[in-house]
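Can't paste images in this forum, so I'm doing it all in text. The chain is below; anyone willing to post the predicted structure tokens underneath?
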Amino acid sequence: MMFLEFFIWGAWFVSLGTFLAANLTATGSQTASVFSTQSWGAIIAPFIIGLIADRYFNAEKILGVLHIIGAILMYQMYKATDISVFYPYVFVYMVLYMPTLALVNSVSFNQMKDPEKEFSTIRIWGTLGWIAAGLLISYYFHWDSKEGTASGFLKNTFLMAGIASLVLGLFSFLLPKTPPKIAKSEKVKISELLGFDALKLLRDKNFLIFFISSILICIPLAFYYQNANLFLSTIGVDNPTGKMTIGQASEVIFLLFIPIFFKRFGFKKTILVGMIAWAIRYALFAYGNAGELSFMLILGIALHGICYDFFFVSGQIYTNSKAGEKFKSSAQGLITLATYGIGMLIGFEIAGLIKDNYAMADGSFDWKMIWIIPAGIAFVVFLLFTILFNDKTKDITEAQS
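Text version of the structure:
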């Protein structure tokens, strides 16, 4: 289940920017609108989960229905020949897909005696699924090669994702039963679904700074999702989608280092390492090339583990420690809304505008400037957090146990 869940996402999302530019001749702003559907999906997902999934139907059944509908939408995206036709399908798809991320977790947790110890061994199969999709696209099918992109083969990623979605949809009905967690008669507050109950945590100056920083750091993150594959493809890097799986591999490796960093350096220094890593990776992208400096691009991709884990995972741990038992779920919901919702929504829009602004007359892009700008944004966030955040809490790791 977990392998297929993330295989589906990795099968089309990584190479989406390249597909939009090569197959649908999308502008930067149009590409931004397509990528922003992920953020809208993240904002709408809590309503689907909280108002429907947690109250009326078994999680595995909803998972099955959503993925079967998703397979149909993927086929429509595969057939689309214009951005105006493509956009409605991808919007509906992401609104339906994002809730499945919570559903697979619910199905998993329901089968575990000790989720804290057992979940990581299950979740890692999701990362392996994402990696497998990228390796297939680049090294088996060669859809993202120059010849493949020019021939329009990149659209086959949607067909592959659609088939995987259909398989997972049917397979979901065979998964262990995961009944609703909330009684139908029990009232559900919208504020609770979106994490607004945790807004009182923002009275804490340090948590407020962390919250604002979380939104701001997602602006450079959006540049990576939206432009990295297209950038690697257009400058002549071979098998770009496959090479980008190095980022997921490093994510798994650096996840192991977080407890060590927390214990030795504390939360502030750990999260600052994550922030500065964003600035460094984009500087590497700005000055690297597909020739003798290709190692800079590979190093930039490999930094994904530090960028993601040291900021997002450590941020989740910090949020958990500050929220207390009563607001743990609401606080995590609030941070998710702030990052994947608001932050990345702003980030995708800015990334699209910057890409259009640095488009050349011959159809190429000034990639150096496109990467220098998010590097600068990440560095400014790093400086602001360094100066303004002064939480002296030393027992964050203890709060997790």
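The chain is about 80% helix and 0% strand. The chain has two domains: 1-176, 191-401.
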